[in-house]
């Protein structure tokens, strides 16, 4: 209460001189309230927009992580995929996604606010944000970058072998329908929200949905050429660990907006509370993955350490506002310990997942969502469960409560798995049996950079580039091009 009074006093000090200069009489109570309300809206809007920009930067993190863990001959193709997915996610979420997820409607999906309210300046009247203090445009921006993150996760398991057209044809229904419908169930005030299901920033809504698409894509595509020989997995290392870990750090930075911005306001809320939990879990995730990789592989696997950070971040995304700090460390540590185990299990099932998306986003997403039912405290959950939903107070199973919240979390996950898993499988199968989902063996061998895009991401590694190598150096005497190679084709001559 003391901090609230102090903030109000500061706001009054900021507003009063402006009002006094504009008129002779002191401002009335109503005028002061209006001015304070305008200032609160401005502050909340700025925070939501800045947080959304952090989340948008996560696309750069995905790009570097995927390039680093893919083959050099496919580096340019990864970048092209990132760009097309961002553009489709933004356009489809503007057309249908925002309305389905956050438009006023029924318990299953929104039915208002199509094409972001079509004409003129959009207002919050068509959406569940009618009482929000941040502007509706900032809220749209925040939610569209979440959708783009979920879509980016899907293709982490499909690197090095997917047709470019496959990305395009999948992105349209995923961003325009599949992701938004599940988002509406909780964040749009739908049936899961009314049951008390909690997911603060998207362990299940964002990350698990992306991982389910990744699983279906990997199963329908099949493994990369040479990944499995005589039934045994063969390591295909990424070409740049420094790029991959730089991507992890950028993702980690973006998570400050991902979780911190999910407050959707800055006034009267310590959103840094969830940022603290987020960092604790990420750090613990690295420790867990380091310990487990040492136990399993007898080495300190750097890529597993990076995935440990992502696993901790994914796991804490759902409970970051609902559990105490010590529990955040436990959540991140368990996620990190699970990462190497799940990676090994996935390979034993003959599933080729170059990025470890199924472990980092799928299993960690499930674990983090369930963790609310284990560690959630009434002090932290009542603001939603009691005040917004109108249900009785609840506690997590391991902090003195019963099975009630854990059960809701479980069947919320089950519903997401059934809906998103089923629909993504249908979409991928439809693409496979129409235009095709996988590139030819010849194109996979030569690399997607040259076969899909007519250029190399690292041209100096594959073709002669005049002036690329210093004269009189040992490398200058070696020609990497040969008659009939891509270096002699018009597409790469420039």
What does the model show?
- The structure is a single chain.
- This protein is an all-alpha fold and 494 residues long.
- It folds into 2 domains: 36-441, Ammonium transporter AmtB like domains (Ammonium transporter fold, Orthogonal Bundle); 463-494, no CATH class.
- Helix content is 64%, strand content 1%.
- The protein has 18 helices and 2 strands.
- The protein has helices at 2-22, 29-69, 75-102, 114-117, 136-154, 164-186, 191-194, 203-221, 241-260, 272-297, 302-317, 325-348, 357-375, 378-385, 404-432, 441-446, 448-453, 459-462, and strands at residues 228-229, 232-233.
- A two-stranded antiparallel ribbon has the order 1-2.
- A hairpin with a 2-residue loop joins strand 1 and strand 2.
- Helix 2 (29-69) packs antiparallel against helix 9, helix 3 (75-102) crosses helix 5 (136-154) and helix 10 runs antiparallel to helix 11.
- The termini are far apart.
- The relative contact order is 0.12.
